[in-house]
Please model this.
Amino acid sequence: MGPTASGKTDLALRLADLKDTHLINVDSAQVYRGMDIGSGKLSPDLLQQYPHALIDIRDPSQPYSASEFRSDALNELRSIAGSGKIPVLVGGTMLYYKALRDGLADMPTADSEVRAEIENMAAESGWEAVHRKLAQVDPESAARIHPNDPQRLQRALEVFLLTGKSLSEYHRQERLAATDPENDLPCELAWFAIQPADRAVLHERIGRRFHQMLADGFVDEVQNLFDRGDLADSLPSIKSVGYRQVWQYLAGELDYDGMVERSIIATRQLAKRQLTWLRSWPDLQPLDESPTNSIERILNYVDSNSI
Model:
């Protein structure tokens, strides 16, 4: 685990060179076909050399949920149990890791009409109004979700409008589900995370990487999605960091410089949220930014636990 641009993928590839691994993608954008440059997906040649499960498994028009990830990841883990390979989950979608670790309650799927209703409220009165509405019906979630986090605000209010039950209540059900033997993982997971010591260095790396994505043809990639005609920026795929901002640029809502600035800011905010998740993650084994030190620590764990 680790924030975006911290070197998770490179570390996983180094580990694959040294051990017989089964790599499993834990990135919510990389599950979508045609979303390659902006998601940081490996090149086709590298993916052939280092196959990853759960990459390119969905069309961008088809949302992919955390519960679907859990089911798919469990299938991958079960399929290699006893094979001698080491499953390595790599990516930065912290909600997916939490779903895998704790299980999920049977929450309703996304509803386009309800989401449009919430988005209209936000367009008319701002996301602060959505936050106030959420505070009325689910104060626990409202206290946990920042008013400037539209995706989580939308989902929390959507769950209540669809079911009359708060997201907090569903989370309590999840904690109970985590103790259900049917949710047992087929293997014990060890949680390693790259945690950059210098936030400024990470921010600089994020900016440099985004400019490289642009040089590699990121705008053309989003243009291909934009031109399809069956996609919209309300879809989870297009809401991915970077994709949403380039989409807004292509729609004439942002100029080029504004798109670049907002993309980098949004990516930095994503990294901050990822680090916040990691600070509260139990049994976390921190890694520094040195690939050599990190590999040594992981290999020591593998050897000491006879994996």
